[in-house]
Amino acid sequence: MPTSRRGLLRLGGAAVVGVAAGTAVLRNATADATELPEQRFHLGTYTASGGLGIARGRVDPQTGRPAIDFWTTAVRQPSWLDIAPGSGHLYAVSEVSPDGTVNALTSDTALLNTQPTGSGPAHVAVHPNGQFLFTSLYGGGAVVTHRIAGDGTVGAATDTRRQSTGGRTSNAHQVVVDPDGDHVLAVDLGVDTVFTYRLDPAAATLAETGRLTLPTGTGPRHLAFHPDGAYAYVAGELNSTVTVCAYADGVLTAGQVTSTVLSPGVTNYPGEIAVSADGRFVYVSNRGTDTVAVFAVSAGGAHLTLVATPPCGGVWPRHLAIDATGTWLYVANERSGTLAWFPLDAETGVPGPAAGSIAVPAVTQIRFG
């Protein structure tokens, strides 16, 4: 992760797309898509590295090709985005230090308002009820809670939970609301821990209810839930692993640990992890080997088998996502400044050869919605 993470500009001929694993059902990419609706997406970038800000665009359902409608430069370093259910309001971090912010925008990317959130926000998550927003502070070592008003604007921080253990430096990398909406999980790369908090909706505060401590040097970066909510998968950035965890009532219990690479000892740093909506496959972006690790899920979600590591279509795949139809996998390759898309095999879950790639400088995330 970089030390500092990262007006309307019309670009009619450019292109891109966005994501949401968890809304897709895998299907054959060659199936008839004539009746599928056009999907909308947003895109985050690192503006300090040449990114153009936040994009909004659409995807051709037959070819999977993304097309950008416009960019906005309203937010610096908008490295991570989330969308409020129902309203479609967009929320973006400004990943700067020490004065990071969270920003509310309309679905057309018009800026509504900005609030301070803390140093180096790396991730933002909107509660499924659309009333709360959470940020993880990579630089500030904390999880921050904000209320969301009825008009979509984000309020001042109502709670900041500092994370530490054993005197080590916290780097809160991701915050995730659990499937029931009762708990918030904070994945902390710096202290090799996933913290669990219970949300108090009346006070808009978090109370710690548990910790899952992983072996030193795991570097947990991102977590994704199985669709039934009984398991979660934690990507270890520093040791190229996925830890399978049983989950119930806010408690994570570690189980199987498996590698994201075929050859041990290679230089590699997993980025994003995503689960297909039917729960049959898990995908991890491998930065270093520049591949996508594909896992088959078995035992009701308790076991993963690495079945393939195809090329990611670029360099340094920071993020990946499955489209809403389950037909396509999109990979945001940050260092090559490209967005590649791949057809997904309905039976094996393995991506086929890249269907295409477009230039998107310093791309960090794609988000459907």
Automatic annotation (TrEMBL):
Protein name per its UniProtKB record: Lactonase family protein
Protein family membership: Belongs to the cycloisomerase 2 family.
One Pfam family it belongs to: Lactonase
Organism from which the protein derives: Paractinoplanes ovalisporus
